[in-house]
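Researcher: Please translate sequence to structure tokens.
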Amino acid sequence: MSNKGNHNVNDPKANSSTKIEPSGAQIGIKQDDALVLENLIVNKLVSKFGDKIKIAYTKPLRIKVEVDRSDIIEVASFIKESLLFDHAESVAGTDYPKGNYIEVVYHLGSYTVDELGAHVLALATRTGREDSSLPSLVNIYKSVEYHERETFEMLGVYFEGHPRNDRFLLPEDWADIPPMRKEFRIKGR
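Model: Translation complete:
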């Protein structure tokens, strides 16, 4: 059987004219590092930020980094510029009434570095339930614009520096507490 016409897109000899930039080599990734990539990323974060961050977990293709609200802009900028996680895939928020805080998690990925394509770096921070506000990452990751708006609307977290902390899912005259707060109850139930 001939392999004529069958091209392996991962084989650099198959299409030598195609070069993807930026490459993983810019942050020290080699093809052999596939099994240790998560530890490489964690080591770079810990080397740069030390006690400012906490690594919540490291799993295959997943890393969760917890950071104080006052450091999130600096850490997010480093993750984008130096580790090449170039976009936010989603933003999620969870209300923890027993701990009296709301956690907001940014799920970051990379379109530009093939070696990072399947990886998700979860960048998490917390704010109090009573005075719920966090710095916006919209100037670092433009894709968070609507995700932060949804988190504002559903959980009541105000994002400082966000261009539009206003409603787009709930009615404009919504007067109840944010519907994703644990104490929210649907009237009549």
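Researcher: Any highlights?
Model: Helices lie at 37-49, 72-81, 145-155.
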